[in-house]
């Protein structure tokens, strides 16, 4: 399989005393549904932030879609985030004064898509995640699970190469958490979109193609 994301000897240091990532080399293959697991402070979120071009490594390299990421080129990083990467966050990060449909459409505004296409894509994805009747509702009118489904639809609306989900079930009850992870897996299979999910939910590890374990900034499995 083709690697969608590849890191080589990735290191991230804060000052002279804290090493958040230490010589991390991994490959995430096209269409893979991969989990990153580890205790708090193991480096999971730091790795996700670097893969998502939200932070820069101290040393080492990252390739996305076969091309090396230049972390000194701000405009190139913005372009990557807008076109190649989808994000799902623990806190949902929906815009409170936009409806569910408008939240899903939002990334397409920056990709200069026509209004009709934005609306069509948003409605199709809201239906796919089981929320067609909630399109006109605001985030405050939705449950936590519904908000996360909207966030998932938003992450997929621009057909990214990879979706990075950082603890997407961290604010949800156990039943809703399982439902959300199963939905991500279904979307992975249906759309062949690559997913990397940071999770502490060991009970759902069987859903993943592969689990990448981290301890003290290093990959251990």
Summary keywords:
2 domains, six-stranded mixed beta sheet, alpha/beta, ATP binding, 221 residues, five-stranded antiparallel beta sheet, 6 helices, MacB-like_ATP-bd, globular, ABC transporter ATP-binding protein, Rossmann fold
According to CATH, what is the topology of the largest domain?
Rossmann fold
- The coarse overall form would be globular
Strand content: 25-35%
Structural class: alpha/beta
Profile the largest sheet. Answer: 6 strands, mixed
Number of helices: 6
GO molecular function: ATP binding
Pfam families: ABC_tran
Protein name: ABC transporter ATP-binding protein
Organism: Methanoculleus frigidifontis
Question: Would you mind describing this structure in some detail?
Answer:
- The protein contains six helices and eleven strands.
- It is an alpha/beta fold.
- α6 links the parallel β8 and β9.
- α3 packs across α4, α3 (100-109) packs parallel to α5 (144-156) and α5 (144-156) packs parallel to α6 (174-191).
- The chain is globular.
- The model has no long low-confidence stretch (mean pLDDT 93).
Quick take:
This is ABC transporter ATP-binding protein. The protein is of the alpha/beta class and 221 residues long. The chain folds into 2 domains: 3-84 and 160-219, 3-Layer(aba) Sandwich (Rossmann fold), CATH 3.40.50; 97-151, no CATH class.
